[in-house]
Design a protein that fits this description.
This protein has 2 domains: 101 residues, Phosphorylase Kinase, domain 1 (2-Layer Sandwich); 168 residues. 46% of the residues lie in helices and 14% in strands. It contains 8 helices and 8 strands. Helix 3 packs antiparallel against helix 4 and helix 4 packs across helix 7. The two termini are 35 Å apart.
Length: 296
């Protein structure tokens, strides 16, 4: 369903974000969720309710426009591969510094239909049917040049249709295996001196899994530990292994999740150290709103 972006309301939301950054306190904002890199804010307007995912700030219009072209291409390719993607609009405003603040905007969808909640509430038969549909989407879409971050929290079930929500990191590679995403942009929340070393050391482990059905399913299953849904893993493994070679094991899933959680915990510690340096040493606002500690 198409919608009109509420321009004035988004400008007001960005002003609120800037005030929160200056105060180092997000309590004046309604946060729908935190990703590993960005956060999603609620926006209630006369035109409806919206979920607004604030992107890392772009250092100029050229970089923002390049991101927009990559995002559009990703959305088109996902739809062509059979993924029902939530209608997404890219909105931006220029900051006083000349940099660009950008948001991916979607209409708010029923929270009670998010897949993690349904997996908790709907019983084994629903879970088995969901996972069969999920595997169909993954196997029909994922390839060495088209990736998918398909963890449970990125899906919503509307009238039996799985809708994909999180498109802010366009996962595409060229024929030589290079990311088309501006990867450096998504490491700008790290201390400047560490950005390139961390990017070079961790990019492969962060991105490679999203480009094979086996890696996508492994990531999905691993993140069930975070969602307190580990009891579903044995049944899902049986379904997945009918289509995946080599077979996945519960031990591999647990080991993968432990390593992935440790990597993101390290990144968050580095961000917190950078925030403390900005606030206590430089006496300047820290330009990111970090998530609270995640119970992994």
């Amino acid at each position: 369903m198409t919608f009109t972006v509420p321009e004035d309301d988004l400008r007001e939301l960005e002003q609120q974000v800037r005030h929160a950054l200056a105060a180092g306190d997000p309590r004046g904002l309604t946060v729908l969720g935190y990703g590993e890199v960005t956060l999603v804010l609620a926006l209630e307007t006369e035109r409806g309710a919206f979920a607004c995912k604030r992107l890392p700030v772009f250092d100029g219009r050229k970089r923002f426009e390049a991101y927009g072209r990559t995002l559009d291409r990703y959305l088109d390719r996902l739809r062509a591969a059979g993924i029902h993607v939530a209608e997404t609009r890219l909105w931006h405003t220029e900051l006083p510094s000349g940099r660009i603040a950008g948001y991916c905007v979607q209409q708010t969808l029923p929270v009670k239909r998010l897949v993690p909640g349904l997996l908790h509430s709907e019983g084994d038969a629903w879970a088995e049917d969901f996972f069969a549909r999920f595997l169909d989407r993954v196997h029909g879409c994922v390839s060495p040049i088209l990736g998918l971050d398909a963890q449970a929290s990125n899906w919503i079930d509307l009238d039996g249709e799985l809708v994909y929500l999180d498109v802010t990191s366009p996962l595409m590679r060229d024929a030589r295996g290079r990311e088309l995403l501006d990867v450096r942009l998504f490491f700008t929340s790290l201390p400047r001196i560490l950005r390139d070393p961390v990017r070079l050391a961790m990019s492969k482990s962060i991105f490679d899994k999203f480009y094979t059905p086996r890696g996508v399913v492994l990531d999905f299953l691993g993140n069930l530990h975070k969602e307190k849904l580990a009891g579903l893993i044995p049944g899902f493994l049986e379904q997945a292994n009918a289509r995946i070679t080599p077979a996945l094991t519960a031990e591999e899933v647990a080991k993968y999740y432990k390593g992935d959680a440790s990597m993101w915990e390290l990144i968050q510690r580095l961000r917190k150290a950078d925030r403390a340096w900005h606030l206590k040493v430089r006496h300047r606002p820290y330009p990111f709103l970090l998530p609270p500690d995640v119970d992994r």
